[in-house]
Amino acid sequence: MAAGPFINVPxxxxxxxxxxxxxxxxxxxxxxxxxxxxxxxYHHESNAxxxxxxxLHPHPQFGGTMNNQVVYSLYHTxxxxxxxxxxxxxxxxxxxxxxxxxxxxxLADAASALDWLQxxxxxxxxxxxxxxxxxxxxxxxxxxxxxxxxxFICVAPPSNLYDxxxxxxxxxxxxxxxxxxxxxxxxxxxxxxxxKVKVQKGIKISHEVIAGANHFFENKTEELxxxxxxxxxxxxxxxxxxxxxxxxxxxxxxxxxxxxxxLERLEAQSAPSAGSGSGGDDDGDDE
Length: 287
Description:
It is built from five helices and eleven strands, in the order ββββββαβαβαββαβα. The chain is an alpha/beta fold and about 290 residues long.
């Protein structure tokens, strides 16, 4: 997917409560989507292999936008940990073109946004996706279609309103967070969803419940950011350990290949040449 033009480059500041309070360039941009142009914000890290993350906002028909406070918190939480991060407005929201499509069109928008992000950061060492409320439903569908996604963050997944049974099996480990005062999505529904996903082989799903938080995490975004940030820190440490182990295994495999090639070379050198030792057998019948 071709990248759209940069429109302007405003500077914004991290929340004063954030561990890395500093100004970042967060360009406004327009990217090409399947239903028209998509309005977005992007934080770019200069390292070629910096990890990438895509953030999806809540329900467009209930006021959800990329400027939602939870989306904004997630965006900064990823950025503070060296991720290149993209958030955008689904079709028909803000300056994004198109109209609400009930899910399929929004999923196509998210796929195009991820395409754009991967085009900008082709050497990213890991890829994450995060969603808030309705955005989690879209995020998890995209996760099932994109094997390169290594992790996810689901905040207030509406498991009582949307069918998440397609997560069977869930291909990546991730974090689910909800509030115990959420009147839109009861905690019991999220617990049931998380429990079903947890049983899938080789996948670990963590679930955190924030006391006193409602569906919108009013006055709880700092606590949410801390929980998500801690989880990301732990996962990235493990990622680096796993990557180093994989590199060492590959180095050992290469050493074994070299040893095998050396043995084959030595065997070839020590083997008798073809026809050797048979030259004197024909002289006995010459009379």
